[in-house]
Design a protein that fits this description.
It is built from 23 helices and 12 strands. By secondary structure, it is of the alpha/beta class. The protein has a 6-stranded parallel beta sheet with strand order 1-10-7-4-2-3, sandwiched between helices. A 4-stranded mixed beta sheet has the order 8-5-6-9, with helices on both faces. A two-stranded antiparallel ribbon has the order 11-12. A hairpin with a 2-residue loop joins strand 11 and strand 12. The N and C termini lie far apart (about 65 Å).
Length: about 500
């Protein structure tokens, strides 16, 4: 299996195949139900959770509204603290910057902190093409890398694997990447964790270059923040001589005080902890501790285009907690790979089509990868109305028209397969424009209700194949109102 999402099919096809994998569904069901239960208990401990949620949304909205100002402030603060800031308009530019910085050190390997941004731009593949090997150090990311796999969850990338599968991967692959797995390795969590710890220790001690992302960037001080649960991030951030951080521009928050809100909501929403075991913060460089050289690569890659959308921009509030994935009935059954993106689940269904555009088959299908039940909105710690954005993006897909992708104006054709939907909506508009026609149609439908099929023919079969057609009442509402209230044509 390839480690990238290039060439993935549209969501309906990928999900259709995934739901027939009983092992996958069992792994997902167990993991998501466990995580969501623990998260609910952790959130219930906080009496002002709703206020924190609202505060987080307002802070992120303020940062996005004045993003130009805060990014300049961040650059000035990082530079004053001894760091170097680079600006990357897209994935290719970011990869060129990072590979150039690594090659300048003369090193041929790097250790990495778990980072969605570097996965988004395909950094590992770009480094490999230049003869540089990147070692993932997060336990779940290590499992994915050793298994030549793809991540399927924001927080737990290997959520689709069970303990037996992980043991087999370690036993089979570890020797090709460094220290082999111990003989007689079992599938107990303690032994698996110890095997990973021993395997990674030599890499931490040898590596001269570390690569990370960041959960937050504080504009007023130039401070970057990484929260994690294993300690591998702390090793990558402190031991190497050179540290390169690739961070999306939306991760900036205005002040240190703003950070307080997210350090309460992120751990409870993601790992169901009151506080992450490791919260690492660094500001530039120092002569006494940590890397001697620090580079911050600020990544756009579609974020400015997303910011221009008044409805869709709220996706940029996301703090990558993954709470929406753990409550989503679609994700639970289809898994993360079906989304064809490093951002799976509900947030991926609205973020990926905006970052990448909706011109491709996979991105045009993602806004439909939802039942619109609203569970994702209820658990989001920054109150992203994901169902609202999904409907908004569905409209964009159906309508087509001019949009901006990668800074360029392009014209999208109306999505294929939606001709029947557009025809139905035009017919509905005509009927609501002419009340007499609507009344006649309602009466005709009521009088022929016994002849109505249980499923729709033609293109409508796909819709009614998973839904019950609503029963037509014996009497139209207008006629009932006129009969019971004496109003003319249902007007009173």
């Amino acid at each position: 299996m390839s480690g990238t999402f290039v060439g993935m099919p549209a969501f309906p096809k990928a999900a259709h195949e995934a739901v027939h994998d009983q092992t996958l569904r069992g792994n997902l069901r167990h993991a998501t139900h466990t995580i969501r239960g623990k998260r609910a208990a952790a959130v219930a401990e906080v009496s002002d959770w709703d206020a924190l949620r609202d505060a987080g949304a307002r802070i992120k909205d303020r940062a996005l509204r004045h993003l130009d100002r805060y990014l300049v402030q961040l650059e000035e603060a990082v530079t004053a603290a001894g760091g170097t800031v680079h600006w990357a308009a897209d994935a290719d530019e970011a990869n060129r910057i990072v590979t150039g910085l690594v090659k300048a050190t003369g090193e041929s390997e790097v250790v990495k902190v778990k980072s969605m941004a570097t996965q988004e731009i395909g950094l590992n593949e770009a480094l490999e093409a230049e003869g540089i090997r990147a070692y993932e150090t997060d336990l779940a990311e290590l499992i994915v890398q050793l298994g030549k796999d793809r991540p399927s969850h924001i927080l737990v990338p290997a959520i689709h694997r069970n303990r037996g599968e992980i043991r087999d991967i370690f036993a089979r692959e570890m020797s090709e990447w460094g220290r082999p797995a111990p003989e007689g390795l079992t599938d107990t969590p303690a032994e698996l964790a110890e095997a990973a710890r021993v395997h990674l220790r030599e890499k931490f001690l040898r590596a001269k270059v570390g690569i990370s992302g960041a959960n937050f960037m504080v504009a007023e001080t130039g401070t970057l923040v990484v929260v994690e649960s294993e300690g591998n991030g702390r090793m990558c951030l402190t031991l190497p001589e050179t540290l390169i951080s690739v961070v999306g521009i939306e991760k900036v928050v205005p002040s240190w005080q703003d950070l307080e809100v997210f350090l309460q909501t992120l751990p409870r929403s993601s790992t169901a902890e009151r506080m992450n075991p490791y919260t690492s913060m660094w500001t530039g460089t120092t002569d006494d501790d940590g890397p001697r050289d620090f580079h911050l690569v600020l990544l756009d890659n579609g974020r400015t285009d997303t910011l221009a959308d008044e409805v869709g921009r709220q996706a940029l509030r996301c703090i990558r907690c993954s709470a929406c994935l753990n409550v989503c009935p679609v994700y639970e059954r289809a898994g993360g790979h079906a989304y064809g993106s490093v951002y799976p689940g509900p947030i991926g269904a609205i973020l990926s089509p905006q970052l990448r555009g909706t011109a491709s088959e996979i991105d045009a299908s993602l806004p439909y990868a939802s039942s619109l039940c609203g569970a994702c909105y209820e658990v989001c710690p920054v109150a992203i109305d994901i169902p609202e954005v999904l409907v908004h993006l569905r409209e964009r897909v159906v309508q087509g028209g001019p949009v901006t992708q990668g800074g360029n104006k392009v014209v999208l054709k109306p999505a294929k397969g939606h001709a029947a939907e557009r025809a139905a909506l035009r017919a509905a508009r005509w009927a609501f424009t002419y009340p007499a026609a609507l009344r006649t149609g309602q009466r005709l439908a009521s009088r022929t209700r016994r002849l109505h099929p249980r499923s729709l023919p033609g293109p409508g079969k796909a819709w009614s194949g998973t839904r019950d057609l609503p029963a037509v009442p014996r009497e139209p509402f207008r006629d009932w109102w006129q009969r019971t209230h004496g109003g003319k044509d249902g007007a009173k």
